[in-house]
Amino acid sequence: MVLDIILGVLVVLLAIAYIYQLRVTKKQSEESADLLRDYQRRLDEQQRLFDDYQRLEKSFDNVGKGYEKALLAFDKIEEEKQMLTQVKEALLKQVQDLKDANAQLLAELQQAKGQTS
Q: What is the 3-state secondary structure (H, E, C) of the chain?
C-alpha cells in the first residue's frame, strides 16, 4: 500500500516534470523561431542596404563618367573655339589686305585717269 502511494506520487511527479519539460521545450522552440525571424529580417535588411550601396556606387560611377565626358567635350569645344578664332583673325587680316590692295588699286586708277585726262 505504501509502495502504491509512493509509486503514485512518483508517477504524478514524473507527469508534472514531463508537462513542465514540454512547456519549456515549446517556449524554447518559440524563442528560437523568434530569433530566427529576427535574424532573417536583419539579413534581409542588410541585403537591401548592400543593394542600395551597389546602386549608389554604380550611380556615382556613372556620374563620374558623365563628368569626365563633359570635361573632354568642353576641352574639345575650347580647342575648336581657339581654332575658329585663329581662322577668323586670318580672314580678317586677308580682308584688310584686300581692302588695302583695293584702295591702292583705286588710287593708282585715279592717278592713271588723272594722267590720261
A: CHHHHHHHHHHHHHHHHHHHHHHHHHHHHHHHHHHHHHHHHHHHHHHHHHHHHHHHHHHHHHHHHHHHHHHHHHHHHHHHHHHHHHHHHHHHHHHHHHHHHHHHHHHHHHHHHHHHC
Closest CA to 12 of 2, 4, 23, 24: 4
Cell digits for 111?
A: 592717278
Query: Taking the CA of residue 48 as centre, how many other CA atoms within 13 Å lie in the half-sphere pointing to its CB?
Result: 6
Q: Is the pTM of this model over 0.70?
A: no
Residue owning grid cell 519539460: 21
Distances (CA, A) of 114 to 5, 100, 103, 104, 109: 160, 21, 16, 15, 8
Q: Please write the tens of the pLDDT for every residue from 31-80.
A: 999 999 999 999 999 999 999 999 999 998 998 898 999 999 999 999 99
